[in-house]
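Same chain as my last thread, 516 residues:
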Amino acid sequence: MKHILSGFISLLLVICATQVQAMEVVELKLANSNKVVFKVRFNNGSVSDPAGKQGLTYATASLMSQGGAGGISYSDIQDTLHPWAATYSAAVDKQVTTFTFQVPVAFVDEFYPIMKNVLLAPDFTEKDFSRVMKNQQNYVDQIVRASSDEDYSKFALEHQLFSGGNMQHLRQGTSESVKGLTLDDIKSHYQNTFTRHNVSIGVAGNYDDALLQRLKKDMSKLSGSAYTPATPSKANNANGIEVEIIAKEGAFGSAIFTGAPLAITRADDEFVALMIANSWMGEHRKAYSRLYQKIRQARSMNYGDYSYIEWYSAGGSNQLPPSGVPRASNYWSIWIRPVQIATQLQKQYEELADIKIGHAHFALRMAIREFDLMIKNGMDKEQFEATKTFLRSYTKLYAQSPAAQLGWLMDSRFYGRKDYLAELDTLLDKTTLQQVNNAIRKHWQTDNMFVTIVTDVSEAKPLADSLINNTPSPMSYSNLVKSGLPEEILAEDEVVANYPLNIKKVTIVDSADTFK
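reply #2:
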């Protein structure tokens, strides 16, 4: 019996050691750093939400990161962390959930047990549950519609693009699904989807090997439930240009977001060729890009206009692409920041008192026409060389902090790469103008797209009629502005105002009926 027991224990030790060895680990040693950053990532995300329980992954991660742990209340934990200037948080995206812990080196030993309890021993109390779920319910019921029409339009576009699939719903869920979530649901989801079989860990900063080994050993104590990652649904193909207008009381202008499926991601070398084209066309927050020059700078229509070849989280606040949002199911998009509606223009300028719609139709036409011209003509050598040179420098700014560097390294592994930012320079250097123009024609088209426009209720019906009938949409300038514009701008306006779009469907949705 003694030999049998000894053999059994040896077998368990082997299994445990195998699990520890198999756990993906990303290291970034920075000997001169005064802090340590830990990232613990689970391969689940909102696509792992069970049917009818959308928002469950978000709720689980929120309760872990904003609730008590190890028998210590959340408020007491925060009081303990404050003098150390230590922090932790959780971020849920479509395919991953990432916990980030940051602490000065001097307090890492005291901080570690708290981090361990957050991940391994969350309290999951009714009091914390009630508080966290109240915030989540308030988000899906009110905040998503009220805080930012620009984000609202982006989330609504994904609702169209991924309709019927597990990528469709908000990470926070829907109004009805969140109401039905229970504390038992969260406890079960924690056991089933936050497991040692789908976890990866990252450590950056000034740490020793013993600390890393301790973390690996502790993470092997996560739930041993069998876990199979959910396959993310693919973006749908539109039938022509399908427009959804969300009519909202008091909307500040017309916020526009449009997109279509994209078959490649950072995993593909060809992605870099499209990255060059996209940067020239609509680099995020960059005034040199084509869309910005045409819509914002030449015509002063809005705050900015950009394009993307992957999801760009929190574009209204992030100046650089953030880590922590890797996705295998991809799409490209155009972001037209809010343009004025008819009632605004009518109040500002007497000469515009008779206009029926604002600038949304014109702006959409102009953006799509610019893509059509690029697809037809491609980039020229001068544009290509200047943009490539810019990107070879600009991408080196993406990860400026240890946390950002570690996040990008972990994203690299998601896409099957070792260090994507380090590889980018070589990939960019090797990319040719012909490859860029081939990628443009292969991956971009404007005949079949989804469009979401969040606008005021007063604008919704006139704009819908104008779009579906391809009615001419002349640019509405004040007399003063128009008198100062060069003839080439006004001549181009005439072309844009009559530019045909392949619009096949326009629907108007009441804001109150979204994300139900």
